[in-house]
Each structure stands twice: as C-alpha cells, then as structure tokens.
Amino acid sequence: MKYTILLFEDEPELRQEIKDCIAFDSVEVYAFESWAQYKEAKIDYVPRLAVLDINLLDMDGLTVFQGLKERYPDIEGIVITGQASLKNAIESLKLGVMDYIEKPFRSKDIRSAIEKCESYKQFRVKNYVVDRQFEESRKKFEAHWGIEFIGISQPIKEINTLMKRVAQADMTSVMVTGESGSGKELIARGIHSMSDRSGAPFYPVNCTAIPDTLFESEFFGYQKGAFTGALSNHEGWFEHANGGTLFLDEIGDMNLALQSKLLRVLDERKVTRIGSHDIIPVNTRIVCATNKDLKQMIEDGQFRLDLYHRLNSFHIHIPPLRERNEDIPVLVNHFVRHFAEMHNKGIVSMHSKAMNLLVNHHYPGNIRELKNVIERAILMCDTNVIKAHHLNFTEQSENGKVQVDYSLESIERETIIKAMKACSHNKTHTAEKLNITRQALNRKLKKHGIE
C-alpha cells in the first residue's frame, strides 16, 4: 500500500508547488481545492496524512480535518495558514493536528512536518504493540501465578503483606534478595501488578547479559547516526518502561563504572540518548534483584554504597524453599494443575509417597527446580496419579554441571533400581545382593514406588 496524503489548497499554483514537494515514489498525493471536490473523488488507499490550508473555497481547513477524522480516525494533520492566530493554533491542537506552518514556508518545512507525523505514527503503533503484548503477558501471569507469592508459611505471608504495602508507594525502589530460582522476578511482577503502574509495561533486564560496551545504548538509547550502525532512533530501557516498572535482575553483576551511570539516572530521573542533547524525563519505578551479598561486595569495593542505599529503599528477602517445607505441597498442587492444563493431561493428584519425597528434598535450585521436577513428572506419567518413580531430582546448574540429589531416600531408591536391573528383576537374587530379606525388599519397593 502506498503512503497516501490528502492535500487541500484553493490556490492552484501553491497547490501544485506543495504537491511537487511531497510527491515521492512511495507517496500517492490527492490534491483538492475544496471539501466538495474531495467528496466526489475516489481514494484508492486509506490516507495517513492530510495537509490543509486554513482557508478553503467552501469551508475552513479545520472543519475539513474534523470531517476527515470522523472517516479516518488514525489520520494525522498539518495545517498551513497565511493568517496565523493564537485561536487557530489552539483549535488545531485540540483537533489533534500535528504541525502548524505559517506562509511563506520552505519546502523543507513541509517535508520536516511530514517526517514528524510519520515518526509519531510509528511511535503510536509501536506503543500499541507493546501495550498489547504487555496486557497479554499480564493476563497470562495473573491467570497462572496470581499477583501474590504462593505459599502458606509465615515468611510468605509476610512477603505478600510487604508486596501490597510497597505497591502503593509506586516511586519507592525495591530490592529483592534470595537464592537463584527462589522467585525474585515473581515478586517484582506481583508488586507491579498490584500498583497503579499495572497498566504500563513491566520491563525485565538481566544485568549479567549486558556487555559493558552496550550498557549506555541499551539503558539510555541513541539517536540515528550517533555511531556506525545506528540506522534509526532507538529508545533505551528507561524509556521503554516509562510509566511502568524496570526490573534489574542480578544487579550485583554490574561493574562499578556502570553503577555510577545508573545512579545518576536514578537520582535525576532523566536520560539523554547517545548522540543527542535532549533531556528526556522518565517516570520509571526500579525493582532490582540479586542472589549476592551486596554488603560484603561494598566492603570489598565491588559495589557502590550510595547505589545500594538508592536501590534498597525497601527490602524483601525470600527464604530458600528448604527452609519452608510447608509451602511445598501448595506449590506442588499449583504446578500440577498448571502443567496438566498446559500439556493436556488429565493428571489430578500426587501419590502420598511422591509428595513425601518432594517435601523432604533439599532443592538447591529452589522453586525453579521444583517446577522443573513437576513438569517432567507430568510428561512421564501415563495415569491420573503421579508416583515416586516419575520424579527426577537431577538439576542442570547455571555452570552446566549436573547437580544430583544425595538424600538417603534418593540413594536407597537408585541402589535398589540398579540391583534389580543387575539381577534381571529377580527379587530373591536382588535381596541377596543387597543383603536384606525378600520381605524387606518388598517393603522398600513399595516405599519408593518402584514397579
């Protein structure tokens, strides 16, 4: 589809001059001297822009633009006038006109105004897409997780109370601490969902994934031509999250030079894109998370004390899952429902022995590990009950090494399985190999759910 512009100008020479100025290969210009002439015309494409003289043969340009807006709600407008007045300028702004140009004008004034209209339209489209994506992700998040942290233990009850309180103070920075996999981002999303910012974007950033050379361009943005490869204007993360929440995960991995730049923006609440002198105010709430001991890092000279106090206005700590076993059955039931629905399984319950194994596991990977164990069990289970042998507590750690469950329950179960395989599943031979009676073996097979 061509970029279609409607031109309204009652002076023939000026109408042709403007048309020549804005007619490019990708642009289709329809020129009219009046509203009546326009109504008789056939327009091939939906117009994106109208350029209008304020005085036309049958009515004023602002009334024409108002009529166009009723037909094409997304159309933008540029008004041209030889009799500039404050009244007309104010009326133009009320109608949503993007630019107001006085006669005499230069060709580049028209082109500049058109470029401004197009940039604004692209910005609106981008915002619309971001808003839709945010709304969809917010609904999915609340549907599957709710806006509170799941659990019945006293620490989790206190965390949910803290989340609700700090959500109402939507300018306060929040520091969330806890081991890897404990649910720090869920806390951040919950705070955002309960706050007045819930209708604006939640923008997560993993600080470990940002090369130092890209820090400023990603956080603050850049202007077209600021450096080789900057082919268009680029919004930084502070602008993306403007009005909403910027979640800085693993803030402890940010180096000192970058910490000072971040601190300046947090104090001033303003950013300047690379290659630009324009100051852009940002209304962004900061929620950060770390699994490191920042106080120790401050003593070691690895983290700025002033940045720590700026980010740690409100602190929420998540205890590891092994310290709140009473939450495990609640989380297990939640994950079973979630993954059963996701994978179209009819699984509705967890065998008591399987639940016992889950409750007594130490979870080095915290909630993330439990979630992975349940999803795998759902996929492995062919009945409507998850049993002990469907569980696998092996976890792939961040450094690529495999972490294995060394609990006595797990070791005993694996030893029995290996012995059964070595004895071709003969119980008598297996009992002899394990130096136990056959009756004891049967009890252990039943205990561990080994079929």
From TrEMBL:
Keywords: ATP-binding, DNA-binding, Nucleotide-binding, Phosphoprotein, Transcription, Transcription regulation. Residues 149-379 form the Sigma-54 factor interaction domain. Residues 4-118 form the Response regulatory domain. The modification 4-aspartylphosphate is found at residue 53. It comes from the Bacteria. Transmembrane segments: none annotated. Coiled coil: none annotated. Signal peptide: none annotated. This is Sigma-54-dependent Fis family transcriptional regulator. It comes from Carboxylicivirga marina. The lineage of its organism: Bacteria, Pseudomonadati, Bacteroidota, Bacteroidia, Marinilabiliales.
